[in-house]
TrEMBL record:
Top-level taxon: Eukaryota
Keyword Nucleus listed: yes
Family per similarity comment: Belongs to the NR2C2AP family.
Protein localization: Nucleus
The protein's name in its UniProt record: Nuclear receptor 2C2-associated protein
Keywords: Nucleus
InterPro entries in alphabetical order: Galactose-bd-like_sf (IPR008979)
Any one GO CC term of the record: nucleus
Gene: LOC116063398
Length: 141
């Protein structure tokens, strides 16, 4: 059964933070399981979240909760081995609402890093607001 791949040893990076205000809108709020906090990107096209896992994994599902009006319309999941280049794994298409959405990932290869690309936003200025993000799967054998 798939479980969360995000742990204390998972390194994360984001494309931007609104007004560089990491205390209020930083990447740590993607994973804190608190519905009062969020990661809020700054303006611009193609915002992203990059995760590096402590070991090779196989991703089976993504779960993401946007703020309605600030969701991505099209998303792409890329992955790569430890020293390799990112390649496309899957596309997914969230709805523009506040609900927790789940996206199964079919036949993902073993990867050490993933990059979730929010290719465009429902917001005119390109901002993305995410209340929670989880990557499910298992260790690669």
């Amino acid at each position: 059964m798939a479980s969360s791949l995000i742990c204390s040893e998972t390194h994360s990076r984001v494309s931007s933070v609104l007004n560089r205000d990491v205390k209020q809108y930083g990447k740590k709020y993607l994973f804190d399981r608190n519905e009062e906090t969020c990661w809020n990107s700054d303006q611009g096209e193609c915002q992203w979240v990059c995760l590096e896992f402590p070991q090779s994994v196989k991703v089976s599902e993504l779960k993401v909760q946007f703020q309605g009006g600030f969701s991505a319309k099209t998303c792409r999941l890329d992955g790569c081995p430890k020293d390799g280049a990112f390649t496309e794994i899957s596309h997914f298409y969230p709805e523009d609402n506040n609900s927790l959405q789940s996206f199964p990932i079919q036949e993902a290869p073993a990867v050490d890093k993933v990059k979730i690309m929010f290719e465009n936003s429902a917001d005119f200025f390109g901002r993305i607001i995410v209340y929670s993000l989880d990557v499910l799967g298992g260790k690669a054998s």
